[in-house]
Design a protein that fits this description.
With about 200 residues, the chain is mainly beta. It has one domain. The chain has two helices and 16 strands. A five-stranded mixed beta sheet has the order 11-14-15-3-16. Strands 4-5-8-9 form a four-stranded mixed beta sheet, with no helix packed on it. The longest helix has 10 residues. It is globular. The N terminus is likely disordered.
């Protein structure tokens, strides 16, 4: 279940209670070495943008794109940041997600290469929920000129009235953002998952 943030505002001398859901943004750690970010090889597999749609893909039609790292395999973490913004994760991460939200993800064998050749036991995640979670009244953002598409987010506030509880999803209004619940963040921290931070 998502955590709830309660905000009290003084309005006309009265306390007004607003409840918003708290999600955490899946991000690359600020101190992550640039030379350990993988290179997405264009045309080597299924187009990366299909994994941003929040829709189930036919397994037989998916070819995991190659992600190449210049470093040795021993320097690879549980989550492998890459310039294709694909979610490449270890078995440890898969175990956490399968325990908490098995119906919210689709798993494919990843095609990961390091300095010493192909690296096994990594997986490509497809997040199956793409939800309009952004409170567009309380949030502050810039749109692409002439469209409603969001270019950048300056202040993020999430809705508090979702029909279902989600542990992992994509922000439908800003699909590069993968969001997780408080319990997923806590599970990652307890298991000491490396290669990701939550903002």
């Amino acid at each position: 279940m998502e955590a709830e943030l309660e905000i009290r505002i003084n309005a006309n001398g009265q306390n007004k209670k607003e409840v918003y859901l708290v999600f955490w943004i899946w991000s690359v750690p600020e101190d992550y070495p640039n030379n350990r970010i993988g290179e997405y090889i264009e045309g080597s597999g299924t187009d990366r943008f299909l994994f941003r749609e929040g829709k189930k893909l036919l397994k037989e039609e998916v070819v995991s794109p190659k992600i190449i790292f210049e470093c040795d395999e021993k320097y690879l973490y549980d989550v492998l940041p890459n310039n294709g913004f694909l979610l490449i994760v270890s078995e440890k991460v898969i175990e956490i997600l399968n325990e908490n939200c098995p119906d919210d993800i689709q798993i494919f064998e990843a095609s990961v290469y390091a300095k010493n050749g192909r690296v096994p036991n990594y997986f490509l995640l497809n997040v199956l929920n793409s939800i309009e979670v952004l409170d567009k009244v309380e949030s502050k953002y810039t749109t692409i000129r002439g469209t409603d598409a969001i270019l950048s987010l300056d202040k993020i506030v999430y809705k508090g009235n979702l029909e279902h509880h989600y542990h992992i999803l994509r922000n439908k209004d800003y699909k590069s953002h993968v969001l997780v619940s408080d319990s997923i963040k806590t599970a990652f921290e307890k298991k000491r998952v490396k290669g990701v931070q939550f903002e």
